[in-house]
Design goal:
- A five-stranded mixed beta sheet has the order 5-2-3-6-7, sandwiched between helices. A two-stranded antiparallel sheet has the order 1-4.
- It is built from six helices and seven strands, in the order ααββββαβαβαβα.
- It folds into two domains: 36 residues, GTP cyclohydrolase I, N-terminal domain (GTP Cyclohydrolase I, Chain A, domain 1); 159 residues, GTP Cyclohydrolase I, domain 2.
- It is elongated, with a radius of gyration of 20 Å.
- Strand 2 and strand 3 form a beta hairpin.
- The longest helix is centred in the middle third of the chain and has 15 residues.
- With 216 residues, the chain is of the alpha+beta class.
Length: 216
Amino acid sequence: MSVDRERIAALVTELLKAIGEDPDRPGLKQTPHRVAEAYGEFFAGVGQDPSEPLAHTISVSHGPAPDTIPSGAVVLRDVRFRSVCEHHLLPFAGHAHIAYLPGEQVVGLGALPKVVDILAARPQVQERLGEQIADTIASSLDARGVLVVLDAQHQCVTMRGSRQSDSSTVTVAARGELAEPAARAEIIALIAPAAGARTWSEPPRLEPGVTAGDAG
């Protein structure tokens, strides 16, 4: 499914009129087309298969390398991402930290940010995004455990409502052996230095149906 840029441009023209602006004035004349191009990037992941980047795996027991099965976690920190909050259509952006305990199959590290990019490029809430990343990795690899920590700033919080400009939201999604509290805490301790030297731990669990965007 591709983004309908012409339709978006037409709707942005109507939006400009609805807020009392003149879409034909020089400063706004190209705005509908610019917004359409931006939305084409923001929502390019709609309809894409996030497991595709993980389709090409490496057998650690049959080569080419490494020639032994890893016993510890593989941790990829500071994966930058940006997405759009589905509640207000405002951006949120930050870092994803991903860890998994390999089984017999491993994947090139460059594949993991691609999974994040595909899932982030659609209307999202941060809690679901982290769960989807964890599910994709867990179902596509024979990983013994998966942990995904997202740390992001939401413009629906920083730019509107209470305008908490310094606030960020941290969410944790865990699968398999890394859902065990002690194992999860060990990985989070490795990830924490990447979070700008801040001290943070797992966030409290939200009630069903409540998401970070609802706070605005």
